[in-house]
Amino acid sequence: MKIEVLFPEICNLYGDLFNVNYLKDCLPEAEIVNTSLSDEPLFVTEKPALIYMGTTTERGQELAIEALSKYKDRLQQCIDENVNFLITGNAMEIFFEEIFEAGEKVCDGLGILPFVAKREKRNRFNSLYVGDFDAGLEEPLKIVGFKSLFGFAYGDNSNCALFETLRGDGLNKDVKGEGIRINHFFATHITGPLLVLNPTFTKWYMEEMMGVENAALAFEDAAMDAYNLRVAEYTDPGTGIYY
Prior knowledge:
By secondary structure, the chain is α/β, with parallel strands linked by helices. It has a single domain (2-234), classed as Class I glutamine amidotransferase (GATase) domain (Rossmann fold, 3-Layer(aba) Sandwich). Helices cover 24% and strands 28% of the residues. The chain has 6 helices and 14 strands. It has a 6-stranded mixed β-sheet, with no helix packed on it. β5 and β6 (104-108) form a beta hairpin.
C-alpha cells in the first residue's frame, strides 16, 4: 500500500502532515511516498492507495498549480476512476478554476473543480468547526476541527458537499455544505489535522475508502477520549467561535 504526499516541502502548514503520520501509525505496512515539486508524481504511473495534499501558503498554491498543470488530465482520470484523494486546507483551491484576490484574478487553477476562490488578505477568518459526515450509518459521524482562511470558496456544492455544517462556515458564509466530495476525492478547508482529531472518521476512511479490513486505530483509547471531549466542547454554545 502506497500513500503519496504531494509537495510536503510547501504543503505543511497547521500540522496537516500529521494526517499522514497518523495513518502511518495506523498502517505501519504502508509506504509513504513524498513527492516534491520537481518530481514526477507517483500517480502518473500508478494508482496509490491515497493521494494527500495539505495546507500551503498563497505562493505555495501557485507553485503547486504550476507543478501539477502538466498532469491535469491524469488527475481527472484518477478522480473518475475512484482513486482516493484527501485534500485539506487551502490545497483544494489548487483544483479550482480561478483564484482571485481583492477582486483581481491572481491565477488560473487546474480547472478540475467548478469553483473559484476569493481571498481577502486583510482579513483572516478563524473558527471552530463542527459538522456531520454521512458515512452510510444509522447516524452521521460528528466532525470537529478548525478553519483558518484568508477567504472563501464559491460555487455550487449542494450535491457534492463533504460535510454538513452544524457550527462554523461551509464553503463560504452563505452555505452549510463544507468541502467537496466527488467519487473518492475528498477536499475540506478543515485544518488541524483532520484525521488525528476525528478517529471515528479515520477508521471509516481506512475501511471504506482504503479497503483495510477491521482497521485498527493507533492510540485508539486516547484518540477517542480526546475526540469525545472535543465534540462536547465544540458543540457547547458557551465556547467561542471568532473571526
